[in-house]
Structures are given as C-alpha cells and as structure tokens.
Automatic annotation (TrEMBL):
Active site: C335
Gene3D superfamilies, sorted: Vaccinia Virus protein VP39
Origin species: Sphingorhabdus buctiana
SUPFAM superfamilies per record: S-adenosyl-L-methionine-dependent methyltransferases
UniProt name for this protein: RsmB/NOP family class I SAM-dependent RNA methyltransferase
Enzyme class: transferase
The organism's taxonomic lineage, starting at the top: Bacteria, Pseudomonadati, Pseudomonadota, Alphaproteobacteria, Sphingomonadales
Entry keyword set: Methyltransferase, RNA-binding, S-adenosyl-L-methionine, Transferase
Top-level lineage group: Bacteria
Length: 394
C-alpha cells in the first residue's frame, strides 16, 4: 500500500471505531482485528502503520470526533508529512479543504476534568495517554523472582512490589519459554500492588468478588502458595470461564470459581457469610486509569454510565462487608482516577458501615487519598488505580 492509501485506511478504521464507541459495540482492538481480517491485501507493515495512525488520532482527541476524516485532518494540522499525503492520489485521501470539519479539543474530555481526584492535576494528563511499559509478575507457584530475573538481565526490579519486573516496551514475552511454563504473568505494577495490599497468606479463605478472567486471583494464589481457599466470583460467565485454563497454566488449580446472579450475589455466597479473611472487590469502573491501554474508552464513557457504576460499586462494598469475618479485611480497588469511584466510595462506606477502619498496610507507592491510596501513571509509572484496605473490627 502507498503511504497515502494507509492514511485513507486509517480514516476508515477510525470511522468504525467511532461508531463502535458511540453504539457501545466492540473495543477498538476488536474492531481493528475484524477490519484487518477483511483486508487481507494489507501486509504486516501496512497494518502496523494504519493502526499506529489510527491510535495516534485516538490518543490526540478526548472528545469523540465526528468521523475518522475529521480526526485525521486535525492530526495533519500538526504534522506536515501527514498533511502532504492528503493528495487525492488513487486510494489516498482527497485534498484537505480548509473549511472542512476538524476534530478539536484536548486529550481529556472537558466534562470529565472536574471528576479527577485533586491529586491528578492537568500536568499529569499527558501521562494518562502515554504508552504503557510491559510489567510482569513472577508466579511463585512455579519460580522465584531471582530465577526469572536471571533470564532477563534487561528487566528492572519494581520498587515497592515484591514479584514485579519491568521489561522494555515492545518486548514480546508470550513467546518466551518462561512465560509458557506459567512462571510469569503479564500484569501492570498497580494491579500487582492491589494483590499485595490484600496480604493473602497460605491457609486463608479469600474471596475475589469481581474476579473477571482472574488477573488478580492468580496473584493471590501465588501469595497463598496454593494453600487455603481462594474463591473467584463474577457475574460474567465469559470472563470467568477464561480463568480455569489460566489457573492450570499457573499451577493454581486450587482456585474455585462461582458464577453470580447480578442483583442476587449473596444467594451464591451464602456459605461465606462472615467467613472470609479477605474479600477483594476489584470493582467495575470507568477505567479512567487505563486510558493508556484503551484510549478509545474516553469516547464511550457517558455521565449516565458513570452514575450506574458508582451505584454498583457502593452496593458491592455493602455485599462484601457481610462476607468478611471479624478481624478480616476488605480491599476495594478501581482502575479509575475519579474521586467518585475511589476516595468517595471508601469514605462513604466507612461512614455508613460501622465497624470498619482504614488500614493502609505496607504499600510503598502512590499517594494517600482519603482512606486509601491513589496510583497514577505520572507519579507511579503504573496504570491509574485507587485502592483502600478496610479492616473489620472484632
Ligand atoms: C475491573 S473488572 C475485574 C478485573 C479482574 N479482577 C482482573 O484482575 O482481571 C470488574 C469485574 O466485575 C464484574 N462485575 C460486575 N458487576 C458485578 C457484580 N455485581 N458482582 C460480581 N462481579 C461483577 C465484571 O464482570 C468484571 O469482570
């Protein structure tokens, strides 16, 4: 493909991503996979170039653009080489008309700016959209960190995180034998810290209430050395069914899974009433802390979705409170930097559920925000997370 034809393809890919974001369709990654599957003529270099162009546009504009061309024309306004490719050549984009619509605005949508925790000031915004590094977690059920580090001399040890290593961006870990053996998992430093904040130990009863496909459950299994009870629960059958094969690879077959009925979660968790040493709530949220991985989620989020999420988060906290045993702990986390999903949830819970007190544990990163800790890409080099540990008094 010519460079101009790649620009036109990026415009068409963006059109599909914009419609999917507006209509709550598939993620940008899924849209791109289907787009390229239908265009076998695009070689691997073409695909990479088209994707890079589309993702540059997604990162550049916080508000959802009218269409792909408006986004790419606006990008061309800051890049002369790109602008020169709007040359009307065969398969390329037609020349730019100075009066045609252009995407505008900042990298962060205006309406969400007031929602951030006060700790996230405007100078932190660019880091929210920078490419994320590759963090891995050593699975102690298979190997110890020193063994893995010996195989990757380029890996940096992650300060404040016992089993974390950071590899250079672009490193392909999935093809390494150490990955295939189950000795490592790809997991952001912030996610690893949430699991560490739980301080799960062998022999405990631990419930991961929003386990999804089990990213944090597997970290908890490693901390528990495969001993005790670890229950992974979620309302999504699709996500939860991804866990058992991952658990086999990680030698963590002791994990139990429970599919919950939305709105009737306690019916399936009845036997765990006041029985858990730890309940982790990795709650559904806006994902505003993970824009660097999924930048197009800025184009999906709407005020009414956020309101629904906030209500659900508070409900999950109240459910979890009933499952923690006296003396046990509840860990609440969201990959969000909005105060309404993080600090306000933890503080609100402490006000309404008597008998809990904040307990920050030994986390050696982030900044104190209300009863918990806020991690941000700019300050901590991790995805953005809020996490709070709440101790149930005896
Ligand atoms: C942030 S994701 C969890 C990610 C997962 N813990 C991990 O580390 O990969 C939030 C999860 O909450 C689940 N969820 C949403 N509502 C729920 C509910 N009422 N009860 C339990 N899980 C719920 C979603 O299906 C989703 O998998």
């Amino acid at each position: 493909m010519t460079p101009a034809a790649r620009v036109q393809s990026a415009i068409e890919l963006l059109d599909e991503i914009i419609v999917a974001a507006r209509d709550k369709g598939g993620s940008a990654d899924r849209v791109a996979a289907a787009f390229f599957a239908a265009r076998r003529y695009a070689g691997s270099k073409d695909r990479r170039a088209i994707r890079d162009l589309a993702w540059r546009a997604i990162r550049a504009f916080g508000e959802r653009p009218e269409n792909g061309r408006a986004a790419m024309v606006a990008l061309a306004g800051t890049d002369q080489e790109l602008a020169a490719l709007f040359d009307g050549s065969a398969y390329g984009p037609k020349a730019i008309d100075p009066s045609e619509p252009k995407a505008s605005g900042d990298i962060v949508p205006e309406w969400v700016k007031p929602l951030f925790s006060e700790l996230v000031t405007g100078d932190e915004f660019p880091a929210l959209l920078e490419r994320a590094p590759l963090d891995i977690r050593v699975n102690r059920l298979v190997a110890c960190p020193a063994q893995v580090q010996a195989q990757f001399p380029e890996a940096q040890q992650m300060e404040g995180c016992t089993d974390g290593l950071r590899l250079p961006t672009g490193f392909s870990i999935e093809t390494e034998p150490v990955y295939q053996s189950g000795a490592v998992e790809v997991q952001d430093f912030g996610s690893q810290l949430i699991a560490e904040l739980c301080e799960a130990k062998p022999g405990m009863t631990v419930l991961d209430l929003c386990a999804g496909a089990g990213g944090k459950t597997l970290a908890l299994a490693s901390h528990m050395a495969g001993e005790g009870r670890l229950i992974a629960a979620d309302t999504s059958r699709d996500r939860l069914t991804q866990l058992p094969p991952r658990a086999v690879r990680a030698k963590a077959e002791f994990i139990e899974t429970r599919l919950l009925n939305p709105g009737k979660e306690l019916a399936t968790l009845d036997d765990l009433s006041e029985a858990c040493d730890i309940v982790l709530i990795d709650a559904p949220c806006s994902g505003s802390g993970t824009w660097r991985r999924n930048p197009e989620t800025r184009w999906r989020l709407e005020q009414r979705d956020l309101q629904r999420l906030v209500t659900e988060q508070a409900r999950l906290l109240d459910i979890a409170a009933q499952l923690v045993k006296p003396g046990g702990r509840l860990v609440y986390a969201v990959c969000s930097l909005f105060a309404c999903e993080g600090r306000d949830q933890a503080d609100g819970f402490l006000e309404r559920a008597k008998g809990f007190e904040p307990d920050l544990g030994l986390v050696r990163a982030g900044r104190r925000d209300g009863a918990g800790i806020l991690l941000t890409p700019a300050h901590d080099g991790s995805d953005g997370f809020y996490m709070a540990r709440l101790h149930k008094l005896c």
